[in-house]
Amino acid sequence: MGAHAIDPMPYVVEFDVVLRTGEERVLRARARNDFGPDGERERVFMVVRDVTEDYAVVRQVEEEKKRALELAAEAQKEANTDALTGLASRRAIMASLDRSILEAQRSHADYSIVIFDIDHFKQINDRHGHTVGDRVLSHLSEIVVRQARGADHVGRVGGEEFLWLLPNCDAKAAFDAAERLRWAIEAGTHSAPIPEITISAGYATLAPGEGALTLFARADAALYEAKRNGRNRVADAA
């Protein structure tokens, strides 16, 4: 209380005490100085209250608030992440598509997307079971992540269908990226402990004034064109 030695107004101080039992308590004192004729403090009047439990309640509230924020962050991450592959969920990748298209239009930059899926994936599930099918999806996702650039986004939009967002990427670069991915997946499953797989892919490059749904639909149509033409190939959008 030395800091309040000449304070003429009432003040509040808090201090820790250790009981004989070793227990620590927090005390809060409402105090007022009493000064003598010479202006020196002669005595201090105070009312002391044990506020240890008050601090315990505050700590509990803070801990509960922190936990609630952590749970909210975990829920947000789960909503934005595909649990099996670790890639973006459909909701998250479609939201990224909307945002990145707006950015490309504002900056007049090239922008392309690739939609691809695993050829004959149903046969893999039917022949080997869904556990093996899940391993195939996980292994494919690892290959995709290695192929993607730092600014790219990749998400799982359906059972075995994926969307790859390619900002600052024109049609030729999009084809080259999709073709490299197709080759990497075909080659990358030869020696893996999973069935060998191939993919079909369709790509589309953003046209002036085009929206996300139209761009997605064009790439999706190109994907099915690749399948109609024999699978294990890349097709461009009309």
Automatic annotation (TrEMBL):
GO CC field: plasma membrane
Ranges of residues in domain GGDEF? 109-238
Q: Which InterPro entries match?
A: Diguanylate_Cyclase, GGDEF_dom, Nucleotide_cyclase, Rev_trsase/Diguanyl_cyclase
Per the database entry, which stretches of residues form a coiled coil?
Answer: none
Kindly list the GO molecular function terms attached to this UniProt entry.
diguanylate cyclase activity
Annotated membrane-spanning segments are: none
Record-linked Pfam families: GGDEF
Q: Which GO terms describe its biological process?
A: cell adhesion involved in single-species biofilm formation; negative regulation of bacterial-type flagellum-dependent cell motility
- Identify the EC number(s): 2.7.7.65
Q: Which domain of life is it from?
A: Bacteria
Reactions catalysed, semicolon-separated, are: 2 GTP = 3',3'-c-di-GMP + 2 diphosphate
Say which enzyme class the record assigns: transferase
Report what the protein is called: diguanylate cyclase
Q: Which species is this record about? A: Qipengyuania aquimaris
